[in-house]
Specification:
430 residues; alpha+beta; OB fold (Dihydrolipoamide Acetyltransferase, E2P); BirA Bifunctional Protein, domain 2; elongated; ATP-binding; ligase; EC 6.1.1.22; Asparagine--tRNA ligase; NA-bd_OB_tRNA
């Protein structure tokens, strides 16, 4: 019976065959212990000299790291194993012998590992991180599909900027200038006017020359947009979504969390509702914590976000930022126009902002005013203005950065480990 490692619990006591690679091995006298991986998981294969032919035993003892094989044996329960099962090997068919595999069990520097990212992905730690990433993506689709959202794919090549910033990658689109998308949000607003509730999931790009542990040049965003939804309703959707994703990871990735040594008690406590703190109160809190130089009207950096998060056990929404430091499309608070109806969700444990969202301007006259203030009167933005001309409604949306969320949930220090092939300021290889 040919199967995979994750399926072997169903075959306890039976002989199965697995296509696998040798992750590591040790041998002692008349027994060899093979650490096997097949992409779905890891399992130990025990090769006893008395149970196999001499050729098979010598093959097991001499096999090199990352050699590939078909390996057969009986599946037995083993409570000492993190996986709970092992294979008592009866036969091995070598497919390809790997020679001088560069990533050995010894310590390697980060740059070396990044240069060999195509191979580093095979390690148990990287495998666990990618499995958690995959579960977050799976749970995202489940949450929004169950809530009646339609997935819409915005373009990656655009003629305008969503945020109005200069941190864009320029490219030539035949005879006109184009940019790599830094957000699908503007297009998702158009989609929300057609389908009501929509979400996108795709790559975005920021030409920001940052080297922090929270930044990537290319990263993935989940961006829902909802018609007839105000700011407060959007916050409730955000906290329900994040709570759902975390509970899904806890339920389906316990082995991976254990592999990473993640303290899951911190995750188990994260359930909606989340605390909220206004920008005004956040400024006062920071001053109390010793950030005496921070003034009203300034944006928060990583140290500020971390200090604010330390005052709460759950993620915290910072709401109602000054309009001057936020994007042109955010709706002013009717009771206080100098601030906007927005929120950033700050993750605990120093992981910073994972969601940014707001209620969008739905008034045509105000949006025309914003266009003038931000010099957006060109034809590239004409279609976005038309959304306020033809059946405008109150609407809200948000964007969740996948890699920062993976880093937080997995307990990983740097986002470079949370995406298969990271693009960093000085890294385009492999």
């Amino acid at each position: 019976m040919k199967t995979t490692i994750t399926q072997v619990p169903a075959y306890e006591g039976q002989v199965v065959t697995i296509g696998a690679w040798l992750a590591n091995k040790r041998s002692s006298g008349k027994i060899a212990f093979l650490q096997l991986r097949d992409g779905t998981g890891f399992i130990q294969g025990v090769v006893a000299k008395s149970d196999v032919t001499e050729d098979v035993f010598q093959l097991a003892k001499n096999m090199t790291q990352e050699s590939s094989m078909y390996i057969s044996g009986t599946i037995v329960e083993d409570k000492r194993s993190p996986f709970g099962y092992e294979m008592q090997v009866s036969d091995i068919q070598l497919i390809q012998e790997a020679v001088d595999y560069p990533i050995t069990p010894k310590e390697h520097g980060t740059e070396f590992l990044m240069d060999h990212r195509h191979l580093w992905l095979r390690s148990s730690r990287q495998h666990a991180i990618m499995k958690i990433r995959n579960e977050i993506i799976r749970a995202t689709y489940q949450f929004f599909n169950d809530q009646g959202y339609v997935k819409v794919d915005p373009p990656i090549l655009t003629g305008s900027s969503a945020e109005g910033t200069t941190e864009l990658f320029h490219t030539q689109y035949f005879d006109e200038e184009a940019y790599l998308s830094q957000s699908g949000q503007l297009y998702m607003e158009a989609a929300a006017m057609a389908f009501g509730k929509v979400f996108s999931f795709g790559p975005t790009f920021r030409a920001e020359k940052s080297k922090t542990r929270r930044h990537l040049i290319e990263f993935w965003m989940i961006e829902p947009e909802m018609a007839f939804v105000d700011h407060e309703e959007s916050l409730e959707i955000q906290e329900q979504y994040v709570s759902f994703v975390i509970q899904s990871v806890l339920e389906n990735c316990q082995l991976e969390l254990d592999t990473l040594g993640r303290d899951t008690s911190k995750l188990e406590a994260i359930k909606a509702p989340f605390p909220r703190i206004s920008y005004d109160d956040a400024i006062a809190l920071l001053k109390d914590k010793g950030f005496t130089d921070i003034e009203w009207g300034e944006d928060f950096g990583a140290p500020h976000e971390t200090a604010i998060a330390e005052s709460f056990e759950k993620p915290v929404f910072i709401t109602n930022y000054p309009a001057a430091i936020k994007a042109f499309y955010m709706k002013p608070d009717p009771a206080r126009p100098e601030v906007v109806l927005c929120a950033d969700l700050i993750a605990p444990e120093g992981y910073g902002e994972v969601i940014g969202g707001s209620q969008r301007i739905d008034d045509l006259t105000l949006m025309e005013q914003r266009y003038e203030e931000h010099n957006l009167s060109g034809p590239a933005y004409k279609w976005y203005l038309e959304l306020r001309q033809y059946g405008s409604v109150p609407h809200s949306g948000f964007g969740l950065g996948l890699e920062r969320t993976v880093a937080w949930i997995a307990g990983v220090d740097h986002v470079r480990e949370t995406i298969p092939f990271p693009r960093l300021l000085n890294r385009l290889y492999p």
